[in-house]
Amino acid sequence: MTRFLNGLNRDIADVVEMYQYVELQEMVHQAIKVEQQLKRRNILNMQEKGKDEAQRENVFNIRCLVEGKVCSMIIDGGSCTNVDSTTLVEKLNLQTLKHPRPYKMQWLNDIEEVKVDKQVSVPFAIGKYKDEVLCYVVLMEVGHILLGRPWQFDRKLTHNGYTNHFSFLYNEHKITLAPLSLNQVFDDQITMRKARQCEKSK
């Protein structure tokens, strides 16, 4: 029982060790109950956070339209490239070009190194804002499109770190992009995971 208790998350172990147990099974049952209570409490705490505070630790996620289809997009200042997922390119039958200098990257999925040897020009719309961006085509599971530093530089984006909004001038109009809520991002991730599972089962 001591070994089990020592292997628990500290918050769970602190509560579990306050009770007396005859069998290990009782301790396991109590640990599960405490874990569920802590999860509920954490969810409630997240919901109580202010809307702006909830954006403090979030990557910027937004939805866009590509050829009339709703797609997920991430804007990430830490990325040195613009990336489009192979899934999106294949589903929408987008025309690819050979990459002038193919290379390998690791950071976009959990599988292995990915060879970057194609690029694609992706037309997209966010509300009234319409644009086209050149992206490298790679296997990516976090979203359909990732806009990195090249796009941000070209559009002279300003990022408000507090609200997590991006703003810029486009054709002499001020554009402000607001991120999705945590619930919307979660729903998008579930939808994409289900779509990937359907594709794998075919």
Characterization of this structure:
This protein has 202 residues and is of the alpha+beta class. The protein has two domains: 2-48, no CATH class; 61-201, Acid Proteases (Cathepsin D, subunit A, domain 1), CATH 2.40.70. 37% of the residues lie in helices and 33% in strands. It has seven helices and ten strands. It has helices spanning 2-6, 10-16, 24-48, 51-54, 86-91, 149-155, 182-201; strands at residues 60-66, 69-75, 83-85, 96-105, 114-126, 129-138, 145-147, 158-160, 165-170, 173-177. A seven-stranded mixed sheet has the order 1-2-7-3-6-5-4. Strands 8-9-10 form a three-stranded antiparallel sheet, with no helix packed on it. Strand 8 (158-160) and strand 9 (165-170) form a beta hairpin. It is elongated and about 70 Å long. It starts with a helix and ends with a helix.
CATH architecture descriptor name of the largest domain: Beta Barrel
Number of helices: 7
Write the CATH homologous superfamily of the largest domain.
Acid Proteases
- Amount of helix: 25-40%
End-to-end separation: 45 Å
InterPro entries: Peptidase_aspartic_dom_sf
Summarize the model shown.
The chain has 202 residues and is α+β, with helices and mostly antiparallel strands.
Question: What brief labels describe this structure?
Answer:
Peptidase_aspartic_dom_sf, 202 residues, 7 helices, alpha+beta, single chain, elongated, Cathepsin D, subunit A, domain 1, seven-stranded mixed β-sheet, 37% helix, three-stranded antiparallel β-sheet
